[in-house]
Each structure stands twice: as C-alpha cells, then as structure tokens.
Design a protein that fits this description.
The chain is mainly α. Helix content is 64%, strand content 0%. Helix 6 runs antiparallel to helix 7, helix 6 runs parallel beside helix 8 and helix 7 packs across helix 9. The two termini are 12 Å apart.
Amino acid sequence: MCFNTMHFAAPQNIKYHITEKKMSNTDFISYSFIFILGLVIGSFLNVCIYRIPRDESIVFPPSRCPKCGRKLSMLENMPLFSYILQRGKCKGCQGSIAVRYPIVELLTGVSFVWLFSMLGPSAVFAKYSVMMCILLAVSFIDLEHKIIPDEIVVFSIGAGILLNIIARDVTLLSALIGFFSASGILLLMAIITKGAMGGGDIKLMAAMGIFIGNGPILLALFIGFMIGGLVSLILLIFKIKGRKDYIPFGPFLAAGVLISGLFFDEILIWYLM
C-alpha cells in the first residue's frame, strides 16, 4: 500500500525545546513556578477526585480530614510537603492520609514541567495542562469507584471547545469528527457485547476527540486497547485479577489520549517509514 499524501489534524504548535545550553536562572525560576503551580492544582484535583463521585461540592465546605471531619489549617493544605511533614497522618485524629494525595500532587507537578519543557509558554501548553488534569482525575476516580462522572465529561467538552479556539491546533471539522469517531466505535462495541464497554469510557473518548481531533483520537483508542490488553494479561498471569474481574479501562484510554495527542505526528512518521 502506498501513501502519497495524508492529512490528519494533530497539534501543529507543539515544539520540542531541546537545547544543549545549561539552564539559566530564569529557566530555573520558570520551571519552579510551573512545578509549584502543578502541585497546587494537583491538590485541587484531589478534592475533585474525592468529592465528585460522592456528589459533594468541590467548593464548600473547605478542605477537611475525611475521617474526623476537622477543617485543615493552611499549613496542612500545603501540597505534598504537608504529607511529608505530617508523616502521612492527620494532626487531629492521627488517621492515615491516603497515599493518593501526594501521588496526584507530584504527578501533576511533574507533568506540568514535562509539558512546559516540550511546549513552552504557549496556549497549547495551557490546553494540554488542562487535558492532563482531566485525565488524571478520570484515571484515579475510575480506579477507585469504577465510574467516569458526567460532570467531568461535560466540563471536558466545554473546555475542549474553548481551548481549541484559543490554541488553534485542532480544526473545527477534526474536533467534530473526533467527537463521534472513537466514541462511536466504543458504542458499537458496547451494543455488540451487551455492555462490556462502559458508558463513561464512551463519553470520555467523545470529549477527548474534541481536544485532540479525529486522527489522534483513533490512534489513542488503539493505544488504549494495546496498553489495556497488556496490563490485563499481566494481571491475569500473576493471578492479581480473575477472568471475570472488572478492570477499569479509563486509565488506559487516558494514557492513549496523552500519548497520541502529544506524539501523533512522530508515531505516524515512524509507522510509515
């Protein structure tokens, strides 16, 4: 099969800032700020991850210990460092704080720095940072509760449309087709298998199709299936999961969306070579 011309909608503004120069003081300050910003937003993501599946407000009441209900002080609300200083325990009831809290905060901070190193201070960086936050929240909620909340899906659709207009890296047509393409495949699978594919996964891929466009979302679906299949096989081999056990698919789809969204062009060129 010969490919003469192929046109897929992929992020066109992604530029990899690879340099041999040593990091300047300005660079250090910028990366430090981005990392701290990521930690703070990661702390907010923890609130979303805990409260949204429980149908609680993410604004009120203020942060509190989930075990004793005590309102947390400003020091206790410090992302990552408060967990370390308190040795993973509440200062009031001495109950253990879930390790998910520092993991989410650290992942968000590191992810922001990683994206910033590739995309620089740009609208595309802002767009992919928001997408990263959505994917992190979805992954941890799905792992714990085995659901992908509609509230996050609706927010994702609105955010994707707005950020596409600002970043101008995905065309309107590609976003529109992307909304239906991968989600349509999952919907068809759900119908054929009588519910083996969750509705949350279908809606997530529809929203992410707006974010990254038609070509990348189809590749994201393929990558998600590949990663999910490999991980499931490993879990079965080591008898961590049984053949009839439910394995959340959201995190695998999230990984596929991130990989395809950022590296679609590179993967396509590698495949066609």
